[in-house]
Amino acid sequence: MEPEAFTSPPVVWLVTEDIHLIRADTITSIGVTGDQLTIWQGDRPTTVVQVNHRPQFSTGYAGILAQQLATAATEPPLDHEGKPFPVVYVWLYLDDAREPCWQVTAAGSNGHSDPPEPPFNARTPS
Predict the structure, then answer these.
(1) Which stretches of sequence are listed as region Disordered (predicted)?
(2) Which pTM does this prediction carry?
């Protein structure tokens, strides 16, 4: 019987609405302030998504985001060979009705994978 290959947990990235990548293991807290879902890295806040004058976020969304990030780390998507992807991206975006939606996408397991496309219009940082 062959020994099982060592697999380390994947690196999980949260993708913000304006396409900033935040490594999930650096997030110290998650909160909701009316129309914004915000994460903190120490004392530095970053808005994940903002609905503006649309329906407000409930406090439950902070818990949902925490759950999505934890699940991505402990149960990452698998590649075509059944191996966990080493990099997982978690997006929270607003659909056409301006309702919050989740997408968990994996990338980087092998050289044959294309990088994931965010479900919203990506802007290249200047």
Answers:
(1) 105-126
(2) 0.72
